[in-house]
Amino acid sequence: MNYPAGAGGYWWLREFEMNWYGPNIPLKLLLLSLTLMLVIPSISTGADVEFRWAVLAGSKAEGMEPLDFTGSPIVFSGTDLQIYVEHLNNCYIYLFLLDSGSELTPLYPSEKGYYDYGFPRGPKFIPPGDNTFSFVPPAGLERIYLIGSEVRLFQIEKLTEIYNESSTNAQRDLLLSEIKTILDEYESASLKGEKRRKAQRKSRTAEGIVSTSFYATEVAVSERYGRVITIDHR
């Protein structure tokens, strides 16, 4: 449709209205929606692996505080310790301790086939409840290997199962090799996905349920997370 020069400066708008509001409105709306989907990218955090962790130290009588892993914290023999993990989405978490005597202990999951029936929710403490563990001599570096994965790591689980049944040096070395392969690939990038967040713990006492808070490391990364948590045991 042609508009004369004297028809006003907005003739192009009237022409657009005439062309748009024609008989094919649903088709045009569909085309507009598809165009917007192509032009405007979808927003995604890219976080396939989300969870929190902390290592608590102190004494059950005086209270437990999270260790600061901006360096290698010092912990003395006999200090009460407890590890906290909490799944924030459907990811797989694996936790191992290589102590100062080179003994490897799988810590989490706590049993064979743990992930067969889904993912746990809520805070998990290792050992559970009010129980704790402590380092024993010899002094040296204690290393906690922490892995988070978007997909289930069946090879890690299989090697852990074999090692639990036969804790030989050969089986330990096979499991350690698999763990370190993942850590070598992902640890440097994993540090960028860490933030400090408050976590909560609820304990049952004679007075009722008591809630306490502490700072934990919150992880949000894509695909996998790997971390060697080093403690200076003295």
Molecular structure report:
The protein is α+β, with helices and mostly antiparallel strands. It folds into two domains: about 5-40, no CATH class; about 50-234, no CATH class. It is about 25% helix and about 35% strand. The strands form two sheets. Strands 1, 2, 4, 7, 9 and 10 form a six-stranded antiparallel beta sheet that branches. It has a five-stranded mixed beta sheet with strand order 3-11-8-5-6. A hairpin with a 2-residue loop joins strand 9 (about 195-205) and strand 10 (about 210-220). It is globular.
Order of helices and strands: HHEEEEEEEEHHEEE
Oligomer: single chain
Helix-and-strand structural type: alpha+beta
Major sheet attributes: 6 strands, antiparallel
Rg value? 28 Å
Mean pLDDT: 84
Relative helix content: 25-40%
Number of strands: 11
Number of domains: 2
State the distance separating the first and last CA atoms.
88 Å
Helix count, DSSP H or I runs of 4 or more residues: 4
Shape: globular
Strand percentage lies at 35-45%
Sequence stretches where pLDDT stays below 50 over 5 or more residues:
1-18, 25-44
Give a quick precis of the structure.
The chain is α+β, with helices and mostly antiparallel strands and 234 residues long. The chain is built from 4 helices and 11 strands; from the N terminus they run H-H-E-E-E-E-E-E-E-E-H-H-E-E-E.
List the keywords.
25% helix, 2 domains, 4 helices, five-stranded mixed beta sheet, alpha+beta, disordered N terminus, six-stranded antiparallel beta sheet, 234 residues, globular, 11 strands
